[in-house]
């Protein structure tokens, strides 16, 4: 069912401070389950839905008009590669949730193509997560999640959903796509939480 495209070969250096079991790469590997969605920007929308059903939405021009931030972060993929010092631009999730009255503790992130991933809401707040649309000074390529992807760099990269289209706030946790397939529910690379039971 899942098709994994591997945009890299070989192993990188190990002489830097990396999470356990990771190797350093200079490439930006492309791994996806299934085909790359290419949503029409004229119809693209990002929504936040509270646990009470209240909806907040932004079109592509509206999202791009929000205050943006540039961040430099390290990325860690569950397939064991790490890429250090990556440069991104996007909108902080704090900005998107600023007007949302919520008592939720969890979030389900939804993406074009049907992908989902779950996170504690606390991991999306306080400057820890962005809806990113530029990488290395350029518009984000579709293969890397463009036009926009979630960026949650303190967790394994599968939590940074590509082709993001919305966040659903929830009182109770529920597993997303990879979590339902046996990946760890949280995914902390420093604790090597790759799979259920780790």
From TrEMBL:
Residues 34-178 form the Oxidoreductase molybdopterin-binding domain. It comes from Rugosimonospora africana. InterPro entries: OxRdtase_Mopterin-bd_dom (IPR000572), OxRdtase_Mopterin-bd_sf (IPR036374). Coiled coil: none annotated. CDD domains: arch_bact_SO_family_Moco. This is Molybdopterin-binding protein. The lineage of its organism: Bacteria, Bacillati, Actinomycetota, Actinomycetes, Micromonosporales.
């Amino acid at each position: 069912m899942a098709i994994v495209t591997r945009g890299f070969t070989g192993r990188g250096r190990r002489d830097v401070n990396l999470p356990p079991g990771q190797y350093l790469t200079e490439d930006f590997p492309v791994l996806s389950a299934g085909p790359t969605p290419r949503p029409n920007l004229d119809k693209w929308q990002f929504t936040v839905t509270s646990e009470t059903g209240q909806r907040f939405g932004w079109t592509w021009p509206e999202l791009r008009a929000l205050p943006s931030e540039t961040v430099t972060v390290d990325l860690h993929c569950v397939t064991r590669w790490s890429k250090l010092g990556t440069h991104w631009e996007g909108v902080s999730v704090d900005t998107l949730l600023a007007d949302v009255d919520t008592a939720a503790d969890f979030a389900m992130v939804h993406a074009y193509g049907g992908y989902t991933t779950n996170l504690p809401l606390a991991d999306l707040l306080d400057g820890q997560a962005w809806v990113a649309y530029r990488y290395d000074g350029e518009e984000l390529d579709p293969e890397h999640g463009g036009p926009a992807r979630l960026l949650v760099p303190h967790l394994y990269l599968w939590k940074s959903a590509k082709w993001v289209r919305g966040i659903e706030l929830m009182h109770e946790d529920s597993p997303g796509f990879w979590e339902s397939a046996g990946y760890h529910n949280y995914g902390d690379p420093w604790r090597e939480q790759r799979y259920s039971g780790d």
